[in-house]
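Hi C.,

You asked whether I'd gotten around to modeling the 124-residue construct. I have! Everything is below, sequence then structure, no commentary in between.
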Amino acid sequence: VQLQASGGGLVQAGGSLRLSCAASGGIFRNYAMGWFRQAPGKEREFVAAITWSGAGTNYAYSVKGRFTISRDNAKNTVYLQMNSLKPEDTAIYYCAADLSKYYTSTDYKNYDYWGPGTQVTVSS
């Protein structure tokens, strides 16, 4: 499956962005989906994940209450709505697909497919 993230950009602190990740070449509902991010000089970290049906979600503590992950299986797309953005949210954001579709893994090593990432920059 191929993944393509979009929607990144430059925003002021307190602002919002919505990331999208479009999937192709596979059966989208066969995958749980996750968002990860990586800031310069830091390791890749878990942001949010969602099961194949959307019934289960999981969030990093640092984004809980500010970010919302959702998916539209008819459109083969997963979204990350990011509100109340902070400068520390600045990173490249990656979407990923996990064949273990019933789980919302926080470990990037469990994900099978990755997109190229989209830059999010939050200015103070």
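If it helps when you're writing up: Residues 71 and 78 are 4 Å apart (CA to CA).

Thanks,
B.
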